[in-house]
Amino acid sequence: MAEAHQAVAFQFTITPEGIDLQLSYQALNQIYLSGVRSWKKRVSRVRNSLIKGVYPASPSSWLFVAIGILATMYMQSDPSMGLITKIHSTLVSSDHMTFSQSSTMVSALVFSTLLWLSLILALRFCLKLLLSYHQWMFEKHGRMSNTTKVWVPLVRLLSSRKPLLYSYQSSLPHLPVPAIQDTVSRYLESVRPLLTDPEFKRMSDLANEFESNLGNRLQRYLKLKALWATNYVSDWWEEYVYLRSRGPIMVNSNYYGMDFLYVTPTSVQAARAGNTITALLLYRRKVNREELKPSRVPGTVIPLCAAQCERMFNTTRTPGVETDVLQHWLDSEFVAVYHRGRYFIEDQIQRILDDASPPLPGEEKLGALTAGDRIPWAQMRKQYFSSGVNKRSLDIIERAAFFVTLDDEEQGMRGDDPEGNLDRYAKSLLHGKCYDRWFDKSFSVVIYKNGKSGLNAEHSWADAPTVAHLWEYTLATDAFQLGYTEDGHCKGDVEPSLPQPQRLVWNIPAEAQVSSSLAVAQALADDVDCHVFPFREFGKGRIKKCRVSPDAFIQISLQLAYYRDRGGFCLTYEASMTRLFREGRTETVRSCSNESCAFITALESGETEEECRRLFQLASERHQNLYRMAMTGAGIDRHLFCLYVVSKYLGVESPFLKEVLSEPWRLSTSQTPVQQMNLFDLKNHPDFISLGGGFGPVADDGYGVSYIIVGEDMVNFHVSSKYSCSQTVSNVSVSWSSETSHTVVGNHIYTRQYSQAF
Q1: Which domain holds residue 134?
Q2: PROSITE patterns attached here (predicted)?
């Protein structure tokens, strides 16, 4: 029977000689330090609230305004045009002050404060207007319009002060609601290459009927919401796409991030876990103190919304019968650790690894509840975890900063089968054993026996770029700042007074059906086919020499390979962020366009090199335009999704919306952005490159393709599909030749000698 060790500040007993008082000075010292930390956080939050509340001005600017007003008054001039006199008379008539020089000064200071606040509001309004201008994204390189030439220095001027993480939040524009005729027109254009003439005629009739009748009614409600809400999409997207899904979130929603490809900084599991946890907590401190620089559009000063950072730590998705709920706590000074079927509060990793005590009955596979269907988990949570020792232990896990698994397996690109081991590494991070991850946590860190690491992230609270930013910082801080000794241990001295890890105690009855959730999760995990493919033949450096966007090049390549694999085209999902707007999340880039299909058809039919080159350039430009439109709020799918939600609230049916929302995404793709290359010294440490991460397939007969463009000469692909579909397979071995150009897609990697055409 495991014990829970609790610190007691003092004990006393009553004896015939009196009261024997025993104090635990260590416990009292911890209480004192905890209080100091708490007050420091409160002071820091108040200070940051003031700084970001007056941005783009500074708190000290009030002093300059006040001094300027007082100086002009000293020179017998009234800059307020009589307002100071009115304020003065109000103060005197209220009997709070007498008519004196001091009351005049107070009146001037009151006016200065009001003027200062008005200037702040004016500056913020100007910055919001400037950030609402997006035409710069659509201008060709080297052909900047006069408007953009004026706009650039103005944005730089108002962004010159060093901002905190959330300084721009109140200045970001709201996501606009597109005109319904524009959305319908763009939708029909996106599905044209996927439909036959009769099918397209039928869909056009449905779309026109919707636009001229029900659509306008739904649009009015949506515009009303956009006037009232900060973002007309994000809350519904979070609730209906993520939280109301009743199926397993493992594989279907959660995604993973990998360690370095070629390097493992240490093979000592406890040391890697210690540094990783330290790096993550350092990042959390930066988030809490708002010391992180706001993310920006690459190569510009344009800020991106930072709202997703607020729920990065101390967050858990709790199950419900109808819908889940995201719960976030402001502070927690611990992390939850799982090792060989036992749960702890983290204080000393090595002590946990050395603890040979067995798991309690039902404890080892308890995490399977978070991997299976949501309704059984909600029911069992209410029945068995709503009171007593089980509730206390579950609360500790859910309130933890994050979750850590000390995995007893070895993973990574190693041994005689590096390709197969990479695939197994991906599957392990995506689902593990289905019970050794806590899939409800905002993210779970996995440290393997050989020191390899990775993470599994829950999707509802944030999108992949936010987690990728965290993971980049963690990997770089672990390897280049914290570092290890020559024998692979953490640097620094051990603190001898650290308390023992606290073992969580459970009382799980035999009738708790953990096994049923495990069976559901195991069947799902066994069906996932993962393949990780580091592509080293060329990267964005060579692609840019062709004056082509690397993302457009890869997306068209995916379209080409899918066409060769399946003999046709499919609806393709590429994730684009909308964080140019406040509380923005994602929009869909429908990468399969008329232009990309025309190029592929021409290439496969043997058209001339010149014609293929021309069509490829058109397809690339079209893709870039689609991506920019999605980023700037002119996408298709989020607008149609919200119209569909409104129709459900009104209790009306739309055949058009119903059909649009039921269309399968057989090719779901996403690029993992590299946001902090300054943290990695690839010149002196070229092996420290990230593998990026991946996700499961969206459709049962489709593919999930994630890719990360690393440096100038490498692209890493993560491909997933399902074994149960006979038409899909994630990996086919192909011999490579430097004389050929390469196309990578969901299930196949193809080669063809057409590179000289581009």
Answers
A1: 61-162
A2: ACYLTRANSF_C_1, ACYLTRANSF_C_2
Q: Which residues pair with 690 in a beta bridge?
A: 260
Whether the ω angle into residue 173 lies within 30 degrees of 0, i.e. cis, is no
Asked whether residue 673 is assigned to any structural domain, the reply reads yes
Q: How far apart are CA 142 and CA 373, in angstroms?
A: 53
Q: Are residues 474 and 536 in the same domain?
A: no
| The two structure tokens encoding residue 82 | 């009589």
Are 536 and 502 contained in the same domain? Answer: no
Same-domain status, 158 and 280:
no
431, 459, 639, 748: which is the annotated catalytic residue?
459
Least confident of 93-107, 194-208, 237-251: 93-107
Secondary structure, 3-state, 684-696? CCCCCCECCEEEC
Flag whether 101 is in a domain: yes
Report CA dihedral (340, 344, 347, 348) to the nearest 10 degrees: -20
- Please indicate, yes or no, if residue 423 is contained in any of the structural domains: yes
**Do residue 335 and residue 429 come from a single domain?**
yes
- Tell me if 4 is assigned to some domain: no
Out of 511, 526, 541, a domain closes at: 526
Q: Residue 280's closest CA among 560, 510, 564, 473?
A: 473
User: What six digits make up the tokens of 275?
Assistant: 């540094």
Round to whole Å and give the CA distance between 435 and 248.
13
CA dihedral 412→415→418→424, nearest 10 degrees, is -50
- For residue 416, pLDDT beyond 90: no
- Between the CA of residue 256 and those of 299, 304, 442, 636, what are the distances in Å? 27, 23, 12, 28
- Higher-scoring residue by pLDDT: 33, 247: 247
Q: Give the whole-number percent of the chain exceeding pLDDT 70.
A: 90
Phi, psi angles (nearest 5°) of residue 718:
-125, 120
The average pLDDT across 23-29 equals 63
Residue 319's CB is within 10 A of a number of other CB atoms, namely 24
The Cα–Cα gap between 706 and 690 comes to: 13
- How many CB atoms sit inside 10 A of residue 465's CB? 20
Number of domains in the chain: 4
Tell me whether strands 693-695 and 255-258 are parallel, antiparallel or unpaired.
antiparallel
Say whether both 520 and 545 belong to one domain.
Answer: no
d(CA 461, CA 315): 8
**pLDDT cut 90: percent of the chain above it:** 66
Pairwise CA distance, residues 622 & 628, whole Å: 10
- 405 close to 445: Cβ distance less than 8 angstroms: yes
Residues 685 and 659 grouped into a single domain: yes
- Respond yes or no: is residue 96 known to be catalytic: no
Q: Are residue 351 and residue 216 in the same domain, yes or no?
A: no
Residue 564 maps to which CATH number?
3.30.559.10
Same domain flag for 211 and 346 = no
pLDDT at 522: 97
Instruction: Name the region of 582 (left: φ>0; alpha: ψ -120 to 50; beta: rest).
Output: beta
Secondary structure (3-state) at 572: strand
